[in-house]
Amino acid sequence: MSENRLFTDYENDFKCKAANIKLMLSYQNQSTNEIQDDAQIKLDLELRAAEAIVKALELEAQSEQLVSQRAALQKRTLACKSTLSTLFQQRSSVASSSAHPPRGMTASTSDIHKKTLYSATQRLESSNNRLAVAAQGIQEAQVCAAATLEELQRQRQVLLKSMTTLASAKSNVDKAGSNLKVMNQRANWFFWK
User: Fold this and answer.
1) pTM higher than 0.70, yes or no?
2) Tell me, what DSSP letter sits at residue 103?
């Protein structure tokens, strides 16, 4: 069973993000209001990035060709969705327990989108690089296969020529055998007469 490398990369990215978010949530209650506001903004950015990764996981799982692998990938995606849902709930409970709402949330929404787009762009570039490497590998394999095919055709021609030569030699040997048989019969006829 081949492993979907891109899915695994996304899943590992998500696990790192989730661990980072859990750490941020644990420090959220210990910080001052000024630090807490900045931390909540960063936490929201991380949550949005994790959400984008889960969406990418869903797309990868849906694009899997083999049904058995698709089901396994969807199961892993559901586990990540569940973790993300738990993180959002923890974020909500931390936000409701704080004395005041985070300042600058409307201004940071564009930052969230920018960072999400930047993260998605980096993943796309990484995917494009992998595809380019794969395409180059396929091209090299095609060149190698063409050279191998050419060599096999050349060897086939040599074998056909050798087969023709052997058939000709066999025919000559058969003729020589027939001639020897006739000569042997004549010699026997002369000596026993």
Assistant:
1) no
2) T
